Amino acid sequence: MTEPILSVRDLKKHYPLKRGFFNRQVGAVKAVDGISFDIAPGETLGLVGESGCGKSTAATSIIRLEDPTEGEVVFNGGGRAGATRKDDGTHPNDVTKFNKKELKRFRRDAQMIFQDPSSSFNPRMPIGDSVAELLQVHGMKNRAQRRTIVGDLLERVGLSADDYDRYPHEFSGGQKQRIGLARALVLNPDFIVADEPVSALDVSVKAEVLSLINDVQEEFGLSILFISHDMSVIRKVCDRVAVMYLGEIVEIGDTDEIFADPQHPYTEALLSSIPTPNPRVRGEGIELTGTVPSPSNPPSGCRFHTRCHKVIQPDHLDLEQAVWRRVLDFTQWVTKGEVDIEDIRETVTLDEDEEPSKQELKDQIREEYDLPSQLNDRTAEQVLEEAIEQLVADNEEAAAEQLNSEFTTPCAETKPEHTSHGDGHRSSCLLHDEYAETELAVSDD
Fold first, then answer.
1. Over the stretch 380-439, which tens digit does the pLDDT of each residue have?
2. Residue 326 Cα to chain centre, angstroms
């Protein structure tokens, strides 16, 4: 097996939350919380997920623009389990442990393309000097030689060598991103992190830049970590995909396999958001409901269970899956105190002078929170009805206790392990791990 050019193991980046006069730490934002993957020489790995899932933080931690909290990033040799380590147990090629001299040497081999090309250049500096600055930092003192190298690179990315003396404001967004690519290539690196490099571009320019990145990768033999929230872009440029949710990688595998047979519900939802070019084919997008959790207080068990459209029911309940999702969402809202009974009362009495009846309020609660007038499971219906009655009686705590005692899911109690689906394809979901093979099988008998 080819040794990976980059091997990431249990990488974490937590930002402390501090409060009070003494600025004491009271928690942490777990932006990246234990991710692992490898990138082979010449490979493009896509890191995909919604905004806020930790993709960019993972990128800056890997490239050491900020220091990780924990974990290991082994670069250029040493990804093997049996590789020689130092006396303190660390790997000699672990980027997270590099000193200033080692980090400077690492910068020659690993570069980054930033999301916003407009903010990544000094507006008072000609773009040629911005690109050539890296050569100067790394020891090339001859200005004429720097200019020759940069001019050649500008032509390779579709611009002109004469553009060297022009300023950033004279270029379009797509041209600036080409210049960003030239800057990333100027030191002839082995590895590039591309952080949403085309998200700010229109469709036609986006296609040109993606094609350019493909051409440059083949010419220079680059390995690329390509970060995006756009699955259609990922499909076009990546060999493998790692799907990230709330600081964790929930699925990873070959691009074609994941697009053809996604194994995690979150991956399914992302793929369903890709628009179809055929107007005769009506899309069947998966709507993610529930509240997006905070990375400072992620849910227990599977972090996706608060929004998952396939969240597991307890053995004693038998509800339609969509109804079960709405019941869990309602339970979350009641628990967080987000059901405003006075607002519901005003809605019912909007066109009436009389005080609404208890039944009218109960019916309005079901309507507002998209709950059926009658659940098809007798036990579930009884619990829901009693909880709604407690809400109408302004007893929110009792309603929350009633709902939480009955409407629980194994997904909130058990953290799923990564399950192999063959040939490097893995996902972390209770539907596929040992829990599904034991507990769910027993419940079906």
1. 999 999 999 999 999 999 999 999 999 999 999 999 999 999 888 999 999 987 555 555
2. 24
Q: Tell me: pLDDT of 38 over 80.
A: yes
Strand order in the sheet with 248-254: 110-113, 191-195, 223-228, 44-48, 240-245, 248-254, 426-428, 418-420
β-pairing verdict for 191-195 and 110-113: parallel
Chain Cα centroid distance, residue 360:
42
- Which residue type occupies 39? I
- 320-335: average pLDDT: 94
Element (H or E) spanning 386, and its range?
helix 378-392
Query: pTM score > 0.85 for this model?
Result: yes
The answer to whether 323 and 372 have CB atoms below 8 angstroms apart is yes
- Residue 6, strand partner residues: 39, 75
**In 138-227, alpha helices (H):** 143-156, 173-185, 203-220
Q: Calculate helix-pair angle for 341-348, 358-368, nearest 10 degrees.
A: 110
Q: Does residue 194 register a pLDDT over 70?
A: yes
Q: What are phi and psi of 111, to 5 degrees?
A: -130, 170
Tokens matching residue 327: 């019941």
CA 234 vs CA 39, 75, 264, 267, 324: distances in Å: 15, 23, 17, 13, 32
- Give CA angle at 80 (75, 84), nearest 5°: 85
